[in-house]
Structure formats: structure tokens, C-alpha cells
Specification:
Immunoglobulin-like; three-stranded antiparallel beta sheet; single chain; 2 domains; four-stranded antiparallel beta sheet
Length: about 170
């Protein structure tokens, strides 16, 4: 159970890191030439400029690495699930399809943890205001996103929504 919580914590950490500019790639102001092994594509330990907890997806070997060091001297460790199986990230933006749940194909063979965020430029009002995930299809690599809205103005009881709002998703899996 602890490795599930670790992965979920890393997804949460990913969302925080995205807000400060390090999202599965280079920190702002950096170039790739001096920070990656030319053969393996893996980030090089000791490089500066990566926030602690920053994540890097290596497209050559498909693994995700996390900076377990500091901003001045990185220590890159692969994120793993179980023993030696490398975890992978998938992310996207889609819209609710009016059904509840809305299925999202992640491209992963199985999902270990995921998060969804409603895209909304203003206060939700009586439209879709909450998204949740049903994990029954995690084994197939699919997310089932459930949408909820308030019953009416002045009645905050949540009921199923058939809205078509846009949302972002991030999944960690194999």
C-alpha cells in the first residue's frame, strides 16, 4: 500500500512543480545539452537548477526520474512501482462527454494513481464543480471521470452532472 501512496504523492508533487515551472522536462532557462547523458538520455546527477522533487520523463528508456537532491546538486532516482518496473506518466486535456462517468483512455497498460482538475476560468455556479475518479478500470489503463454539480442555487447537495466542461488529467502507471 505504501508504494501507492508514494506514487500518489509524486503526482501531487508534479502538480506543485508544474506551477513553479518544472514539468516533466527542463527547468526554465536551462538547455538539455549539459544535463543529460547523450547515450541513455538520463539526467546527470549533480546538475543544478532542478527543484527538489522535479520529475523528468526519459523518452529513451521510458522511465520517470525524480530529483531526490537539491536545487544546486541533483540526485536522480527512477520512480519505480513494485520491484524493477518503471512507472510512466501520461497526461492530457479532454472534455466531459455528458455521460457519467466519462471514460479517458490514457495509453498506459494500467493506472497506479491519477488526478483530474476542472478547467474553469470563473466560479462554477450550478454547473459541474467537482470531478472524482472511479478506479474500477485502472487495470485496463482507463480513467473513469465522474462529474458532480450542486442541486440548485442555495442547495449545495452534489448530484451527478451531465456537463461538457474541459478538464486536465495526469496518470501514473505502467
Amino acid at each position: 500500500m505504501n508504494h501507492w501512496l508514494d506514487l500518489l504523492g509524486n503526482v501531487t508533487q508534479l502538480m506543485r512543480i508544474a506551477k513553479v515551472g518544472c514539468l516533466l522536462g527542463l527547468p526554465f532557462g536551462k538547455t538539455s545539452g549539459v544535463m543529460f547523458n547523450a547515450t541513455t538520455g538520463a539526467p546527470i546527477n549533480g546538475t543544478a537548477g532542478w527543484a527538489p522533487g522535479a520529475l523528468f520523463h526519459n523518452t529513451i528508456n521510458g522511465l520517470v526520474y525524480r530529483n531526490a537532491g537539491s536545487i544546486t546538486s541533483s540526485t536522480w532516482l527512477p520512480l519505480v512501482s513494485g520491484s524493477a518496473t518503471g512507472a510512466r506518466f501520461a497526461a492530457g486535456r479532454t472534455a466531459l462527454d455528458g455521460t457519467n462517468p466519462t471514460p479517458v483512455v490514457t495509453g498506459l497498460s494500467s493506472v497506479l494513481a491519477a488526478t483530474v482538475t476542472l478547467e474553469n476560468a470563473s466560479a462554477p455556479g450550478v454547473g459541474t464543480s467537482v470531478l472524482t475518479l472511479d478506479n474500477t478500470d485502472y487495470a485496463t489503463g482507463q480513467l473513469d471521470v465522474r462529474a458532480w454539480k450542486v442541486t440548485a442555487t442555495g442547495d449545495s447537495t452534489l448530484i451527478a452532472s451531465t456537463g461538457t466542461e474541459t478538464f486536465d488529467w495526469v496518470a501514473v502507471g505502467l
